[in-house]
């Protein structure tokens, strides 16, 4: 299996480096020329919680790779969700009948990939480990977490099992017959993570704020209600359990509180105590993935006539921080709380 990693940043860099170290033939592709240069000249350095290691790399920019690749075998697509289309288009003529593209992204990117190359060449993946691009040639790795591979139609195929075996050199990659369940579970979790990025605090600190808990769980419930309308049963992972959040009427507050404390403990113990969303806003000063993650869910919610006032406000607040017209502040979370409580009073 010849694997081309498109997007050699946080996720692509970590997975690709583990695969190289295990002896696999990996080609890295990244649009950052400095990153490509350092990977080729000094290797790719992964700084993890248990070890730090450096691997030699064959790295190219997209323009360079197009000139040397006759056809692509297996593609690990690891770019930000909003860059899915622009990352794939230069390579469409190199995608053959047997090519498979695996989305190691956040969001429901498999839909967009399938629209470009076909469902039969698209493989879904849910990935939850944390990592940060530090500088050219350096990636901070938060440690092993859940990773599931699955066909879009739910079949357990030999090609997915083959990918699982290849990825065992990284960690406990698993196969699922419900990849959409994991992807929607991650989207409900994304709602929580975007909320934590409204303030310059750790994820655990926000999750532990009991006076905000009902608001944050309603925010996640809005997303889970859309998943329900789409006919998907979201699946939990790494101490996030959507089934304890939604349906609202079956929620057991004590069980949910206990589970959220477990989640907060996991977040606090991670090498990354703040989310990639926070890092996009506070450190890299760039747009988040919200236009490709929560905005499409707002559109689906509108189609299903699901009210999503908290998600709408969250998207608006994140966009204000993205363009610099607002700064991270606890007040944003309390605006969400005010909206939630006013809605509660109107409904009661």
Task: Describe it.
With 348 residues, the protein is of the alpha/beta class. The chain has helices spanning 10-21, 33-42, 62-68, 84-88, 109-117, 158-167, 179-196, 203-207, 210-229, 253-269, 276-282, 290-303, 309-323, 330-347, and strands at residues 3-6, 26-29, 44-47, 52-55, 59-60, 72-77, 95-103, 122-127, 131-135, 138-141, 147-151, 174-175. Strand 11 (147-151), helix 6 and strand 12 (174-175) form a beta-alpha-beta unit.
Quick synopsis:
Helix content is 48%, strand content 16%. The protein has 348 residues and is an alpha/beta fold.
Helix-strand sequence: EHEHEEEHEHEHEEEEHEHHHHHHHH
Unreliable stretches covering 5 or more consecutive residues: none
**What is the strand tally?**
12
Query: What is the number of helical segments per DSSP (H or I, 4+ residues)?
Result: 14
Determine Rg (CA atoms, Å).
20 Å
Could you give the distance between the termini? Answer: 59 Å
Share of β-strand residues: 15-25%
Task: Please identify the structural class as seen in this structure.
Answer: alpha/beta
Helix content: 40-55%
